[in-house]
Amino acid sequence: MLLIGLTGSISTGKSTVSMILSKDHSLPIIDADKLARKVVEVGTPGYSSIVSHFSESTPGLLNQDGTLNRAVLADFSYHYLSGAWAVVLDVPLLFESSLDLICGAVLVVSVSSPEVQLGRLLARDDHLTREDAAKRVASQMSIQEKVERCDMVFGGTRGRGAAIPNDGSVEELREEVSIVVNGLKAGRDGWWKWMLWGLPSVAGAVGARVLAENWWRRECWLREKEGVKANL
């Protein structure tokens, strides 16, 4: 099963892409924003057993305060057993939290400039002043940096990263998403999917390799960026 990290920035349209992936392409979505509100009591034997069994294989199983996230557990285990070829991990701060390292692919919903974000944010939240909206946009990692990181760590010959442009209509966005999904799905919805499903040890080895490769490529990219800054 492919774990696809989905991210973007404020007012780039990530939620719309998440909806398209779910409704148009029948992909299960693990929504970090929604999951953080669904918790259970800590300290029961069942809690300990679930954490022991699922913590390594289920991203987002625990909230920051240590409580169990039932929705993540249910979504992940159900879709693993049902043989879905991919699951989407929808996280606004995917790179900032380093959750991209566990993903087999990453999608960044992008726009051409911060001005597009600013205009959409002001249209959506009309109580904001332009200055307040600009501060919100500036408070996050820039969309340009997210696109660059996606391309350098997951893109290129790996073919596991894509920036989805969202400057046009919803229909244009749907077309862009379909192109990306079809590219990721090629070769992953057949025997390979079922082999990983039937052989957890193989799936674990593949996951470990993905984690190591993602970490290494990220470190190389960060060192390269630091070198460029040092030469300025």
From TrEMBL:
GO MF annotations in UniProt: ATP binding; dephospho-CoA kinase activity
Pfam family, one: CoaE
Keywords: ATP-binding, Nucleotide-binding
Gene3D superfamilies (alphabetical): P-loop containing nucleotide triphosphate hydrolases
GO BP annotations listed: coenzyme A biosynthetic process
UniProt cross-references to InterPro entries, sorted A to Z: Depp_CoAkinase, P-loop_NTPase
HAMAP family per record: Dephospho_CoA_kinase
Xref: PANTHER family: BIFUNCTIONAL COENZYME A SYNTHASE-RELATED, DEPHOSPHO-COA KINASE-RELATED
Record protein name field: CoaE-domain-containing protein
Source organism: Tuber magnatum (white Piedmont truffle)
